[in-house]
Each structure stands twice: as structure tokens, then as C-alpha cells.
Amino acid sequence: MNGAQASSWSPTLADEKQRHPRRWFSQGLFYGLVPVCRKEFLHVTRDPGTLFFALLIPMLQLFLFGFAVDTNVRQIATVVLDESHTQESRQLLERFAGSDVFDLRFYAGSPSEMYEKIRGGGARAGIRIPYDYARRLQDGTAATVLVLVDGSDSTVAGQAVSTSTGVALKESLARVLPTGAMPIEVRPSVLYNPATRSANFFVPGLIAILLQIMIILLIALSMVRERERGTLEQLTMTPVAPLGLMLGKMIPYGVLAFGELCAILTVMVVVFQVPIHGSFLLLLLLSLPFLLTVLGLGLVISTRARTQAEAFQLAMGTVLPSVFLSGYIFLIENMPLFFRGVARVIPATYYIQILRGIILRGAGIGELWVQALVLTVMGCAMILLAARIFVKQGAA
Amino acid sequence: MSAVIEADHLTIRFGSFTAVNEVSFEVGKGELFGFLGPNGSGKTTIIKALCGLLRPTEGTGRILGMDIRKDAAEIRRRVGYMSQKFGLYEDLTVAENLSFYAGVYGLDGRRAEERTREVQALTGIEPYMKRRAGQLSGGWKQRLALACAIIHSPEVMFLDEPTAGIDPVARRALWDLLFQLSGRGVTFFVTTHYMDEAERCGRVGYIYMSRLIAIGTVAELQRLPDANPPGTSRVMIATRNPSEALEGIRKLPGVREATIFGHSIHALAETDRVPLIREKMPGAKVETIEPSLEDVFVTLTYRIMENSR
Fold it and tell me: CA angle A11-A14-A17, nearest 5°?
């Protein structure tokens, strides 16, 4: 063994540690972050197909759901059975048609024909005006109008019931007060979303769900792939620290997700015409805690999954609670106590509040710092938890 | 000679299962130590414990004088590890794999370059630097894995079944590399299933049912009293049709073990019964032989199985 060889095999790292103890300590916790991060970016560029779909699919879903979801009930297909055939009955039907909720599409000749139309799904509502309608109105005895509503869709049914009640009330008042002037008139003014457009309400929430799915899948699959291929085992035998490995993976996927967020916001404003009332910069800034949390969630999932298929299942398992219990669709205030508790531990709950707050109401940091703080704490806890499990497993 | 790898009554339990039971041994500098044992006998667990990944339940170990319970991080900087899975990123090029591991071990740019040149010279991988690791043949993948594992000039190398599933030519090439490195003072701890590989090692340990049951040079093991019980001889019976004769020989009085090796039968028989074998097998050539390493391990395993019954 000659001198040159001896020097190249000497333990230089150990010497360096003695010279810079403080620097080594600060690098120790996150050791390996830079090479892991660089390598992860390389993986992304090596597999443009996966990258393309990872970025494209949320965008496609945004278009799909953004256009398809409309909770405002309009033009319910309605079947009419007018047995009265009078001027009065036609006037009432005009009021129904004028409400924009009922579309008087079919005219039935008999009650059984009307029922059949509803059972067959052709119509969702039926209006039956009895033969004595006009006579009873003139007598001053109460006239009855039957409104049948298909209850299989609760939103449609609710809207149909309330509108028909309103129509009847208006018609009655008009008859009692011949002058036509109502004593009380309610003028509703919907704040922040004056046209009550569904897109304004749903698209901001959808951003949270789409980002969550994309991020959890990307990072969990990347981690589990290393486990499947044995590179994770190799890494655990190197000085790479668990937090170095995890942050090294979070940075590239966080950057990707951030880019996707900007693209989605652009589409939201340009295509769906949802204006951002608050500060765009604040929105981006307060998105970071959410990205942190779901990246951490993805890492926790990756410690539990042995195979990519398992990771995929677990990732998908987080979707439904985030859709239904986060306030994205249903009001948290209306949930039973238990589910209100569940909603509080779902990260999407807080991010949806942030998104809607800034985009729709123009809220500022003063109103949203609590949500941001909760997400930051959750995110750090997730990452520490993932690192802890990782070490306990002996990273096998 | 001070020990580079030391296991001192190392015991590792997972719940009620004892994966490693009171294992002690020492490996000196520049030694090539072979570690044999069936699957699940605790080989990989010992490697993980010695690298500080698993905390021993009892006992301890030292690598280069550092305690595996306290200095895990420092130990991992100074040892290299290679497993049968190779730990390569198949979508990255050879050069990128090397530079990743150089980064992971904290080599700065100048030193990484220097070391890359050295491992290139050693493994001959230079022509493939721009190729993706996934496109290499099994043998070249293995060389790349070794190159990555030694990029930080480790003083100790742990190899966990490094040649599983590799063709014989590539296997021999890898062993030549290991001997070169060991000649430069690198200490090797190699687990394997292959007896011929074990016979190349300077010293061999045999682990069975979580216990280290034999350790020594091949010659020492062949002379172990447990492998050559007093009053017995190991004989080779060359016969035209060994597979037909095997059952008959096993049933002969005084024959303890018998197995086929190519065109002959190796048997462990009581010495005074050997003439009986000659008598019963008139056409066969019967000679006394030294036990092979496999004979030694099989005999030892049988003895343990008998004792535990």
C-alpha cells in the first residue's frame, strides 16, 4: 500500500467533524438534504410522462367539476295536470313557469299518466290543479293545488317545495290585495357572491382537494418506490438523516405543487371568472402551510405502505373525508358533534377556509392567521411523526 | 492486531422472537470475513445492528473502536454497505448515481471528482458513465453498486449476499475486486449462501437459529471435533449409480449421514463400520476424505437439531 492510496482511504470526515463541531451539528439533523433534493429533481425530469399526468389530471378535474357542479336548482322538468282549464288555473301555472325553478314540460291527461311520468324519471315534479279550483277561489273556500316532488334528490326537492309554497303565497296575496302592492317585500342581497354562482363557491374548495390528492400521491409513491427497489435500505446505511431525506423529497414536490396551484388559480380567474377579492400574494403565502401538511401526510402514509398499490389506496382513503367533512360541500356547523370534531383535524378544512376567505370575501391575515397557524403546527407534527416511525422501523 | 469489527454477546429480540442470540466475534483489519447461514438465521439483522440501525437488546458491538449504541452516525460515515438489491437508481445515469452517493457521504466537489476517478479505475465502469443504471447488465450493475458503496473510501464494508442471482463470471470478477480492496486494508464482512464463496474467505462464521455455532478458517472448521465426531470417518463412495445406492447406504448400520456429490456419495460413518460399506458395495471405490465446508455445516446443523429435540 503506497502513500497516495493511504491518503485517499483515510477518514477525512472524522477529522472535519472535530474541526467544525457546530457546523456538523446544524447539518446533522438535516444531513443529506441537498443531494436527495437534487436527485429527486432528476427523477422528475427523467419521467416526463408521470410529471405530465401529475400536473394535467388536477387541471382536467378542475375543468370537469368546475363546469359540472351547479347546486342552483333551475328548470326542474315538471308535468302538469290541469283539470280546471280556467283562466285562474292558467294564471297560476304562469306563476310557476315564471319562477325559473319549474319547467312545465309535459301536460298529462290523467292522474295515472302524471304519476307514471314522475316514476319513469321524465319529470321530477308534478302540479295538479283540481277541476273545482276556479270555483273554490270564487266561493272563498280554500282551493287546493297538489304539488308532487320526487324526493330522490334532496336539493331539488327542497327547492321545489319552497318555490311552490312561495308561488302559492304570492298568488293568494295578490287575490287578497287587489292593488298589487305587498305590505312587506324582502330584498335579499347576497354578499361576496352576488350572482350566487356555484363556481365561486366550489372552485376555491376544489383547489384544496385537487392539490391534496396530487401531493400525497407524488410524495408517497416516490418514497414507497425507494422502499420497493431497495434504495431506501441503502440510504439508511448512509449518514443521511431521516429529516434530511424527508425534506429533500418535500422540496421538489412542494415546488411542483406550488406551480400547479398558480396554474389552477389562473384558470379559476380566467376561465371560471372567479375574481380574487383579497391579496393574491397572501393567498400564495398561506398556501404554504397546507402544502407542508399534506406533504407530511404523504410521508406518514409512505411509512405505512409496503407497496405502491398500498400507498395509492391509503392516499385515496384521505380523499372522501376531505371532500365531505371539510366544509367543502356540507356546512360544518350542521354536522353532529363527533363529525365537527373530525372536521377540525382535517387539513383541508382550514385551507378551504383560507381559500374562500381570501378569494370570495377578501379576508386578510387578521382573520386567517389561526388557520395558517393550525396548518403549520399540523405539518410540522406530521413530518416529525413520519421521521419517528421511520427511525423506529429501522427503515426496513 | 486490533479488531475492526467486534460483536460482544450481541442479542437482538423482536418481541418474543430472538433474531440474534449471544453472538460474539472479531474481525481484524484487512480481513475478508465470510458469514454463512440459512435465510432468516439473523445475518442481515447482525449487519443492521453493527451499522447502528437496530439497537441491540443486550450486548454490544464496536466498529473501528466506536460503540454501535452511541456512535451510529459516525459509524455510517465510515462503513460501506452493499446488498443484493444494489440500491441503484435505475432512471439515473451511472455518473449521477455516483455523484448522488458522493453527495450523500458529504464529499466536496474536488474530492468527489478524485474518488469518482479512483472507483472508475477500479471497477472499469468508465465507458458506461452516461448510460442509465437500469440499462446495465447484472454484472455491471453490481460493479456500479460496489463503486457507489466505496465512493467515500470506507474502512469497513458490509456486503449482504452481494452475488445472489449473478452469473459465475460476474461473481468471480466481484470477488477479484473484493480481494484488491482487502489488500489495501479494507475490512470485509460478507454474507453468502454459496459454499465456494465462503471457502474464498479468510475466516468463516456459521450462524444457525440465531446462534453463531462455528467460526474459524476453513481448515480449522474442517478439523472441528463437532464436525468429525470421534470414532467416525468421512468417506467418498464412487459408484456407477449413486442415486440408486443412496437409500441402501443410509440404512446401513453405523452410517450417520449420506448425500450425493456428483457421481459419488459422501457419508459420515463409524470408523469400524467402513469395512462393512466396502463389503456391501463390491463394485464401488470407497476412500476416506476431508470434510468439505458444506459437510461441516450440515453435520453441525444436524447436531443442533438433535440436541434441541
Answer: 150
